[in-house]
Each structure stands twice: as C-alpha cells, then as structure tokens.
Amino acid sequence: MDRSIGVRNTSFLSWRLAALASLGFLAACATTAPPPPPEVPSFIDAGRDPIALYVDDVVVEELYIPPLKAPNKEHEFQVSPAAIARDWADGRLQAAGEEGMVRVRILDAAVVEEPLPRTGGFFQRFSDTPDRRLQARLHVEASYDGPYSARVIEIVVTGQVDINQYANLNVTEAQYLRMLKQMSKDFDTALSARVSKNFSELVLEP
C-alpha cells in the first residue's frame, strides 16, 4: 500500500478545512454590523432653571449655510455647533409673556479641519500622533423686538480638538462631541449672563 497517497489526502483535507474556516471567518466579518456612532449628549445643563422672559415667543433662525466642502467638516458629523444654540434657546429661554419676541440667530456654526505639521520624519507615519485639528466656531445673535426698546447681543464661542492619524470614525466623533459639550458650557455661561444683564426688563423673577 502506498502511504504517500494517504499523507497527501490528509494534507489536502487539512488545507480544505483551513480554507473553509477562513471563508467562514471572512463571511462573519462581512456580516457583522459596525458599532453604532457615539450618542449625542445633551447640550443643556438640566440642573439650571430656564430664564423666563416677558415675551410671547422665542424663535431660532439658522442663517449659517454650510459650504459642504473642504476644509469645512460640520456636515460630516451627527450634529453641528448650531445644535448648541438650538438646544440652549429651547431649554434655557422660556416665553412667559403676552407680547414681544426674542430671536436667536445662528450666524456661524462652522467646523474647519486643519492639517498639523509633520515633524517626526519617517517614524511619525507609524506613531499614534495627531495629524489634523478640528476648529469649531459658533456665532449667535439674540435680539428683542417688542414694546420695550429694541436690543441686540452677540456671543462667539470656539473650540478645537486634535485628532490622531489612526483614529476611526467613532473615535473622531466622540472627541468632536466632547469638544461641543465644552463649547455648550461656555456658551451657556456667557449668553445667560448677557441675557440677564441686557434683557433685564424682560427677565421675570422665578
């Protein structure tokens, strides 16, 4: 009996089993759903009371139009900085009067990507170092129209975050959302103080 035939058959069977196992693994990888994107946080501090104003309505107007091309990136994320202003107007301003209106106009809500300089030479290509920076800017104007004297206030808040060159989409999104969360705190602190001061005739005591 030629034992070499049995050896070859055994080797061929092992190869086929390995190939089938590999195909099964690849199929499983192909059918596995990618992880969901990070959850968008609330941009409102639930512990703070709303600012009650003697107006009939609070209106948010988005005047900023994203260019939808580089270097702008706000359209590639789940939300743009404009969400900060929308949430703030909805959650912090309360219309509690019978006449007059406060308009919250979003003038700028851009996120621009800027490449970072490479200083590490050849080995930087293999290191987990930042290679780009996201810079966000939120410019908002709040105005009052009504029986009292008209008034306008403006606020600009900015934020930035450096993104590692090997960061995947979810990691990049998570870092971006943390930046927006910090911007929302700065926005709330600054604009709430300005409203209380400049719209003092309209602010109702809790």
Describe this structure as you would to a colleague:
It is built from three helices and six strands, in the order H-E-E-H-E-E-E-E-H. The chain is an alpha/beta fold and 206 residues long. The strands form two sheets. A four-stranded mixed sheet has the order 2-4-5-6. It has a two-stranded parallel ribbon with strand order 1-3. Strand 5 (130-145) and strand 6 form a beta hairpin. Helix 2 crosses helix 3. The longest helix is centred in the last third of the chain and has 30 residues, at 169-198. It is elongated.
The shape, in one word, is elongated
Strand tally is 6
Q: Which sheet architecture does the biggest sheet show?
A: 4 strands, mixed
Order of helices and strands: HEEHEEEEH
If strands are numbered along the chain, what order do they take across the biggest sheet? 2-4-5-6
Uncertain spans: 4-8
Rg on CA atoms, Å: 27 Å
Mean pLDDT: 86
- Kindly name the structural category: alpha/beta
